[in-house]
Amino acid sequence: MSPAGSRGSGPFLYALAMNAQIGSLQDVLDDAVLTALDRRRDVMDATDEDTPYGGSLGADLGSGTYSFIGRERLDARLHFVGSAAPGPNSWLWGWNNVNGFPDAVVARAGQLRDFGQRFGIRELSDGETPLTADPKTSATAFGAVASLICGLPFWLLDAGQGTVGALLLESPAFAGGPSSIVRASTVLPEAAELGLISDWSRALRSYATYRGFGIEEAPASITLRAGDGHLVGTLDDQGRLRSLDVSAGPSVPPSAD
């Protein structure tokens, strides 16, 4: 996704925006998680039970279609990222394509392989990698990375027997809106509970870049601003998120005087 909250895509736009300060999967996770969880809310908001599309779900990996079916039907283009399975305790990339899905369904996953090869991140460039967390958390992590690098919201798929798949979904219905402090105030606690972020200062700066928040940094806190308010994230001495202070309503940056 390109900076300032725009919705571009491509495997290396992210790297260019971050000035290629990427040396590990954790670096990418720190950059990706908040923006990816925010983008997933675009899908949730468009398809929850109060919308015409709220109801049943269906994935057809053969045709590359994910359907939300309520009073009306919404078909989104589906991109298979990969799956986390408890049996082998591993993540298997979609581009490895052991299931023989159509090339168009796994092409986006191939962008993750290319990215991993360019930056020496083996978890992205090896076809299979051991899990370091439970399948759902692992699928969330790789889905978040795919979301940022490819510029699309991610979605999880219960594949049965404890296996969790990660998808990218593509539809104009998921274009989303401007940056929102109200949404950020729920995204940050969700991310903290997942435990996927190591460097919260980096994570918040990246979130501001990719979702278009105003940002102010202090030694032990970071403030994000949007049209609907501002929040202050306080960090502990290890760079972890310690607390949030959220103020809704029009947000005015402090005077420079």
Summarize the structure.
By secondary structure, the chain is of the alpha+beta class.
Describe this structure in words.
The protein is α+β, with helices and mostly antiparallel strands and 257 residues long. It folds into 2 domains: 13-174, no CATH class; 181-248, no CATH class. 35% of the residues lie in helices and 28% in strands. It is built from 7 helices and 11 strands. The chain has helices spanning 13-17, 25-47, 103-119, 122-125, 135-150, 181-194, 200-211; strands at residues 56-60, 65-69, 73-85, 90-93, 128-130, 154-160, 163-170, 214-218, 221-226, 229-235, 241-248. The strands form 2 sheets. Strands 1, 2, 3, 4, 5, 6 and 7 form a 7-stranded antiparallel beta sheet that branches. A 4-stranded antiparallel beta sheet has the order 8-9-10-11, covered by helices on one side. The longest helix is centred in the first third of the chain and has 23 residues, at 25-47. The chain is globular, with a radius of gyration of 18 Å.
Descriptive labels:
single chain, 257 residues, alpha+beta, 7-stranded antiparallel sheet, 7 helices, 11 strands, globular, disordered N terminus
Give the C-alpha Rg.
18 Å
Number of helices: 7
Strand content: 25-35%
Q: What is the succession of H and E elements?
A: HHEEEEHHEHEEHHEEEE
Largest sheet: 7 strands, antiparallel
Envelope shape: globular
Low-confidence stretches: 1-8
Overall average pLDDT: 90
Ends: how far apart?
35 Å
Overall domain count: 2
The count of β-strands is 11
Residue share in helix: 25-40%
Specify the structural class: alpha+beta
